[in-house]
Design a protein that fits this description.
- By secondary structure, this protein is mainly alpha-helical.
- Helix content is 64%, strand content 11%.
- It has three helices and three strands, in the order ββααβα.
- The longest helix has 61 residues, at 38-98.
- The two termini are 57 Å apart.
- The mean pLDDT is 77.
- The structure holds zinc ion (2 copies).
- One zinc ion binds next to strand 2 and helix 1.
Length: 109
Amino acid sequence: MCEEHQEPLKVFCKEDRAFLCLVCDKSRQHRAHTVLPLEEAAREYKNEIYVQLQDLKTEKQTAQNDKVTLQNGTAKYLEEIKIERQYHCVLREGSRKLTPLSQAGKPSC
Ligand SMILES: [Zn+2]
Ligand SMILES: [Zn+2]
């Protein structure tokens, strides 16, 4: 689908090495360019397009990996906070034992 015209992509512009819709094809920008029907372009540029697709896939994969790393980072961060809270709780617990029972409040953890 052409993002600009919301038309199905029908041709391949050799100069721009980009898929175009028929509106793009008729536009001034590509008028002087050599455009091929998709089937022909597919034959001619099979390997090239395949490589481009592979690149896209790799990029997507990298992005996903980043996301996973981020999530792992967050999980680790949350785990650290949890541990810290428990640590403070233990500290409070310890100090409460030292204060007289009458002065000790309700356990807050
Ligand atoms: Zn278009
Ligand atoms: Zn063009």
